Amino acid sequence: MPQFSRSPGLMLFPKDGGFVLYDPKEDNIQRNVGDFPECRFLANSGNWLLVLDSGSSLYIIDVFSKETIPLPSLESIESADCIVKRVGDREFIREESGAIYKDLSADVVRGLLWVSESGKEYVVLWLFDLPGHSYMSFCKNGDSHYTDIPLVFDDYAFHKYDGLSDMVLRGTRLYVSTSRRFVRVFDLSGPQGFFKDITGQTPFPMLSRHDYAYDSSIAVTTSSGEVLLVESDPSNRTWFRLYKKDPDVEDPDHACHTVTEVHSLGGEALLLDLGFTVPANKALGIKPDSIYFTRHFRPCHCSPRDLDICVYNLATKSLVRFPGLDKMNLMDARWFLPGN
């Protein structure tokens, strides 16, 4: 790997184009990756980026080695009741269950990415991020097409589990926060076309006392797979709050709040852009109880949020920002943890 520390770094995307890697530990730009004209960067995992190019083709690229893996076209979806058709370089229509959805643009495609340490295994997930999400689609290494995961139930009794407010991809496990904040878990492993809802009998809602008043995201702990809720105030981002499931809630379907606040990540740090925790490591400058943040609602941008690159420590309640980046006029930024 080119010279870059193994501590958390930042992928920076200036508005005037280009793409650079910034090492906060050294406080300098370590590598200018180059220009990606008219491309959109949907997600990252380790050294890898999920890219949608000007012709609406998806691929993943290792930003250090430049190894590139092309992915199936967006219209390559295997579904019994759905067809996606390309009607231009960046425009699509979707036909499903007798209905036709038009005005689907590559500009509203959002995605998630997971790549193994070896770079040999990966999972890619994407959707047209518009009100009334009905499906998202995924593929894995070796797949020739995408498989749809429905986000809406036909049975009215399950409508409370419809929709999407946030999602996290950790390996072949997908965590979905629904419109009403119920958390569903899917296993995406197995043969092509396979997925399984492994949530259990009753999904649990992640509702704080301040739900909808503040920005929030879900995250998953690496050590236990526990789902967390992370909150902050967009108008005055000087604090973050962390919550976990309240085991004393007896009837979560009718409770006003269902989580309890915690003040520690148990020796881990949270890279919120990735949606999961990593072990703290003093040698790499990864402090325990730290939250690495750029923005909320990253994989589901119905309400885009401004960038606010910072690191918050839950134990000391201190906040570190990087004012030297202000002059770069950034369009986007993402925390990443360099791989092997």
TrEMBL record:
It comes from Brassica napus. This is KIB1-4 beta-propeller domain-containing protein. Residues 33-313 form the KIB1-4 beta-propeller domain.
